Amino acid sequence: MILSLCFLLSVLSPSSQETCSAPGALPAPIFYLKKTFPQEGDAVLLQCSVFSWSLATRVVFCKKGVEISSQRGLEEKITYDYVHAVSRGSSGNYSCGYEIKDSNNWVNRSKLSSAKYLSVTGSASSRGGGEEPTHTGPVMSPAIWAARCVLVLLLLVSAPIITFVLEKRGLSESAGLEETCEGSIMIVG
Entry's Gene3D superfamilies (predicted)? Predict the structure, then answer.
């Protein structure tokens, strides 16, 4: 009886490998690979950006369908980082996914992100040491980029609406402006 109960629980509980090998239906996150041709001994930054209305309870980094790292989801966090130490066997396709637990504690999984290929080019010792990867400058967060786009769109849409409303209310007459017989505007004060 106890053995069958343990078996049933192991079948019902999600395995840590399921996110990578059997993704779900939630929207895929966006995956970034900061250095695609590293050498052995380098460190590569993998980033997974999760855009979801619900809190991601777990974010998983995968290589060829196998989990290599996972992190607990944090409130108000969108982008999760994983620094991967490159070795000879590091070449391959990398992706990420996430899980969300609903109110009944059921785990819902995302689709996997688009895979990015990491190709290891050689040994860091052959070029004189294992320096840290260089950072080319500030990277704009996807959330900030999206907020900027929304604000620009709102500004572009609101200008004609404000102009239309002002024309309908006849703001030029109530502001003390009068049109002369030649068609020019004269301020009366």
Answer: Immunoglobulins
Place of tokens 């939630």: 26
Tens place of pLDDT per residue across the chain (189 aa): 443 433 333 333 444 457 788 878 899 999 999 877 888 888 999 999 999 888 899 999 999 989 999 999 998 899 999 999 999 889 999 999 999 998 888 999 999 999 999 988 776 554 444 443 443 444 555 666 566 756 666 767 776 777 777 777 776 555 555 555 565 666 665
Q: How far is CA 124 from the centre of its chain?
A: 31
Residues 122, 76 contacting (CB under 8 angstroms): no
Q: Model's pTM, two decimal places?
A: 0.56
Question: Tokens for 104?
Answer: 């009944």
Name the phi and psi angles at 176, rounded to 5.
85, 25
Secondary structure class of 51 (helix, strand, coil): coil
Among 18, 35, 152, 160, residue whose Cα is nearest residue 97: 18
- Residue ranges and CATH numbers for the domains of the chain are 14-126+133-138 (2.60.40.10), 144-187 (no CATH)
- Going by their DSSP bridges, the two strands 58-63 and 66-72 should be labelled as antiparallel
